[in-house]
Amino acid sequence: VQLQASGGGLVRAGGSLRLSCAASGSIYRLNGMGWYRQAPGKQRELVAAIGSGGTNYADSVKGRSTISRDNVKNTVYLQMSSLKPEDTAVYYCNVVFVTDRGQVVSSWGQGTEVTVSS
């Protein structure tokens, strides 16, 4: 399974970005999908996740971000607005899926960099 993330870039504070992550390969069923980020010198943290139980957001992005998914395209999106310099990080998508052999696998995308200038 491959995850292709896109949509990162340089944006000014207050601006918006939409990240996308498309999964392809031998996926029997997609379970949870999410976005994480890692800022320089910091640990990777959950930004937002979406699954059968609904959505979950980090407090730092709540009200400014929306996670959504397209189950036909096996794609997860993260719409971020009112961006702040502290949102600067490499954003990684994560997908938990079931293979045709019944294995549950967690897979990570390659990361897309978001830089917010003040």
Key features of this structure:
7-stranded mixed sheet; mainly beta
List the helices and strands and how they pair.
Elements: E1 2-6, E2 9-12, E3 17-24, E4 29-38, E5 45-51, E6 54-57, E7 65-70, E8 75-80, E9 89-98, E10 104-108, E11 112-117
Quaternary organisation of the protein chains: single chain
Q: Give me the count of strands.
A: 11
Strand fraction = over 45%
Distance between the termini: 37 Å
Radius of gyration: 14 Å
User: Given the C-alpha coordinates, what overall shape results?
Assistant: elongated
Pattern of helices and strands: EEEEEEEEEEE
Architecture overview:
The chain is mainly beta. It is 0% helix and 60% strand. It contains no helices and 11 strands. It has strands spanning 2-6, 9-12, 17-24, 29-38, 45-51, 54-57, 65-70, 75-80, 89-98, 104-108, 112-117. Strands 2, 4, 5, 6, 9, 10 and 11 form a 7-stranded mixed sheet that branches. Strand 9 (89-98) and strand 10 form a beta hairpin.
Summarize the structure.
It contains no helices and 11 strands. It is mostly beta strands and 118 residues long.
